[in-house]
Amino acid sequence: MKLYYAPESRAVRVAWLLEELGLAYDVHKFSLGEKSMREPKYLTLHPLGRVPTLEDGENRLFESGAIVQYLLEKYGNGRFVPPSDSSNFASYLQWFHYAEGMIMPPMNTLVVETILLPPERRTEVNVKRASKLLNQMLYAVNENLTDKDYLVGSEMTAAEFMTGHAVIMSQRLGIDMEDKPNLVDYINRLESREAFKTASNK
Ligand SMILES: N[C@@H](CCC(=O)N[C@@H](CS)C(=O)NCC(=O)O)C(=O)O
């Protein structure tokens, strides 16, 4: 198996799962923004030249959520996914998809407006709107974690690889977590996992 990866990117989600499952994989490491991500060779694997991409034998796929689902279905032996007839299943799907659906859109805007664009092209109103939205998205996660250690209950699920990772990235981007104490504990819980540490340092 080969994972196209960059540090501090969504590729960490996939590496984290691979580490948790104890699966062997090779890493092709990029730095975000590196020119070779847009070269024809890599564009044949990912049409947008982004990470993550996974190659597994004949199968090649991009989109972190799809890769996580693929790996769990193929190699997970039921780990990190509540049974579909359990009371947690609906909540699991909801928090799995919350990352790309709700957290990442304002985070993307914030990254563009505070890091990627040259200062003269940045727009303060966009930064303010994206920060406000991202905070709203995170308050909902904070609220959900009032009575539990993980998004769906007392056990870690694959929702952590997605939304948990997005929460971690929000903090690293500088979002104030003081008014979201459950997220501070949650982030510590996730970041202390050996699999997460290994996946973050590929
Ligand atoms: N929805 C995609 C997003 C992929 C994506 O935008 N990846 C970012 C890193 S987190 C990337 O490769 N950015 C590099 C670039 O745009 O040049 C996923 O979840 O895999």
Describe the structure.
With about 200 residues, the chain is of the alpha+beta class. The protein folds into 2 domains: about 1-80, Glutaredoxin, CATH 3.40.30; about 90-200, Up-down Bundle (Glutathione S-transferase Yfyf (Class Pi), Chain A, domain 2), CATH 1.20.1050.10. It contains 8 helices and 4 strands; from the N terminus they run βαβαββαααααα. The protein has helices at about 10-20, 40-45, 65-75, 90-115, 125-145, 160-170, 180-190, 195-200, and strands at about 1-5, 25-30, 55, 60. Strands 2-1-3-4 form a 4-stranded mixed beta sheet, covered by helices on one side. α1 runs parallel beside α3, α1 (about 10-20) crosses α8 and α4 runs parallel beside α6. It is globular, with a radius of gyration of 17 Å. The structure holds glutathione (GSH). Glutathione binds near residues 10, 50, 51, 52 and 63. Glutathione binds near residues 10, 33, 62, 64 and 65.
Q: What does the secondary structure layout of this molecule look like, with pairings?
A:
Elements: E1 2-5, H1 11-21, E2 26-29, H2 40-43, E3 53-56, E4 59-62, H3 64-75, H4 89-116, H5 124-144, H6 159-172, H7 181-191, H8 194-200
Parallel strand pairs: 1-2
Antiparallel strand pairs: 1-3, 3-4
Helix pairs in contact: 1-3, 1-8, 4-5, 4-6, 6-7
The chain binds glutathione.
Glutathione is lined by residues 9-10, 32-33, 37, 50-52, 62-65, 100.
